[in-house]
Amino acid sequence: MTTKSNDSKLDVIPTKIWKCKNSECKAWIREEFTTGEQLCPICRGPMHRSMRHLPAVKNKVPRQPRQPKNDAF
Ligand SMILES: [Zn+2]
Fold first, then answer.
1. How many folded domains does the chain comprise?
2. How far is the CA of 20 from the centre of ligand 1 (A)?
3. Residue 71 Cα, ligand 1 centroid: separation in angstroms?
């Protein structure tokens, strides 16, 4: 059995990324995870903006923490 039930269709959308300028380095990072001047996390080299088709990230519904009820004991 598989642990996850993957959807048969996977939406890919053009996503802004930063990728390493070093052609031998495959590092890239989603722009949303960058902080301005992004350095390569692997080789510490400069990165530049690019685009990449990535599966759409499904926004998780923020779970509202349940307020503990007072137990009427
Ligand atoms: Zn790199």
1. 1
2. 5
3. 55
Q: Flag whether 21 is in a domain.
A: yes
Read out DSSP for 13-58? EEEEEEEES-TT---EEEGGG--SS-B-TTT--BEEEEEEEEEPPP
Local structure of residue 24 (DSSP, 8 states): T
Residue 61 lies in a domain: no
pLDDT, one tens digit per residue, over 20-35 is: 999 999 999 999 888 8
Q: What is the CA radius of gyration of the chain?
A: 20
What global pTM score does this model have? 0.62
In a domain, 45, yes or no: yes
CA of 29 to the centre of ligand 1 (A): 11
